[in-house]
Design brief:
There is one protein chain. Helix content is about 70%, strand content about 0%. With about 325 residues, the protein is mainly α. The chain folds into three domains: about 130 residues, ATP synthase (C/AC39) subunit, domain 3 (Topoisomerase I, Chain A, domain 4, Orthogonal Bundle), CATH 1.10.132; about 80 residues; about 110 residues, V-type ATP synthase subunit C fold, CATH 1.20.1690. The longest helix is centred in the last third of the chain and has 26 residues.
Length: about 325
């Protein structure tokens, strides 16, 4: 295969996989189904191999759907890694590496905040190289450092700032792809570090010293964000950057602002990658977009399960579904 034919083949396979994602009409149907009916529906879709692989017999098992979702997500990402050619592979690696670091961080902040780790991961985790369920049993930072040691070595569990600083240092060794995608990933790493260091009162020069090079944001802008007196001021500075929309969305929403800010930055990066697919439909952006869509579908299904058990209003749930 030539380089162009190889890219075309990969892009065609990914576009075919995207056509099998659950759509808005199907989510509306799923909202009205019981757990047993949902499991039956999944058996008629691309989730059937996952139901079969897990050998689920008890359709009343409340955790069955969650296991099917996790198995499907892992299988879909493994298939993408196998499919990725020389053009696509650096993008998928960078996305999965970043998501691994994010999931460890979510678990660490849940532990220190006294929250249930499994619940926090179910709400905020992203699809990574390591299934996020691997961290769900951690009760202390020492537990988490041990569970994550195969992916991130030498995490210091003494306190949360030290743990996250060593996590960022370990993640900084993960390579970034070349070109526009690499600049986007560098911006996401740097904004995440600037916001965390601002919240924890880390000296500005120490915050900037640990940042990735090659992003679009200038060092002076990142210094101002890291030196802001609070998150609201930091987000107002962000409005002067290409991530203006993410900053404004967080300022308007106002709830869970720290997590919301970083999720909105992540979505802004994914949207920028998606724009690459419109300019270059055979380019690596199509793969990055599909990695994000796999995670969105998993999060949507988990949201529907939780909403059903809590009796949440359909309009409330529909507004929070992320449908490509």
């Amino acid at each position: 295969m030539t380089h162009e034919t190889d890219d075309a083949y990969c892009a065609a396979r990914i576009h075919a996989a995207r056509s099998r994602l659950i759509g808005r009409a199907e989510y509306d149907r799923l909202m009205r189904m019981s757990d047993v009916e949902t499991l039956g529906y999944l058996q008629s879709t691309t989730y059937r191999p996952d139901v079969d692989a897990l050998g689920i017999k008890d359709l009343d098992d409340l955790e069955a759907i969650d296991r099917v979702i996790a198995h499907h997500e892992d299988r879909a990402l493994l298939a993408l890694e196998r499919l990725a050619n020389a053009s696509y592979a650096p993008i998928v690696r960078a996305l999965l590496d970043a998501n691994d670091a994010w999931n460890v961080r979510v678990a660490a902040e849940a532990i220190v905040g006294g929250e249930d780790v499994a619940s926090a991961l179910a709400r905020f985790a992203r699809p990574g190289r390591v299934p996020f369920a691997a961290y769900a049993t951690a009760r202390t930072l020492a537990d988490l450092a041990r569970l994550a040691s195969g992916r991130f070595r030498r995490l210091l569990p003494a306190d949360l700032p030290g743990f996250l600083d060593t996590l960022e240092s370990a993640h900084a060794r993960d390579p970034l792809p070349a070109g526009p995608a690499g600049r986007l990933f560098a911006d996401e790493r740097n904004l995440s570090r600037a916001l965390r260091c601002m919240r924890e009162g880390v000296p500005v020069e120490s915050a900037v010293a640990g940042m990735a090079r090659g992003g679009m944001l200038s060092r002076s802008t990142l210094r101002r964000i890291a030196a802001a007196k609070d998150l609201t001021e930091a987000l107002r500075i962000m409005r002067e950057t290409p991530y203006r929309e993410a900053a404004e969305r967080t300022l308007v929403d106002g709830t869970d602002m720290a997590v919301r800010a970083e999720n909105d930055i992540h979505r802004a990066v994914l949207r920028a990658l998606a724009k690459m697919t419109r300019a270059d439909p055979l380019g690596p952006g199509v793969l990055a977009r599909h990695v994000a869509e796999i995670g969105m579908e998993s999060a949507n299904l988990r949201l529907l399960m939780k909403a059903r058990r809590l009796g949440l209003d359909e309009a409330f749930v529909r507004d929070r579904l992320a449908v490509p």
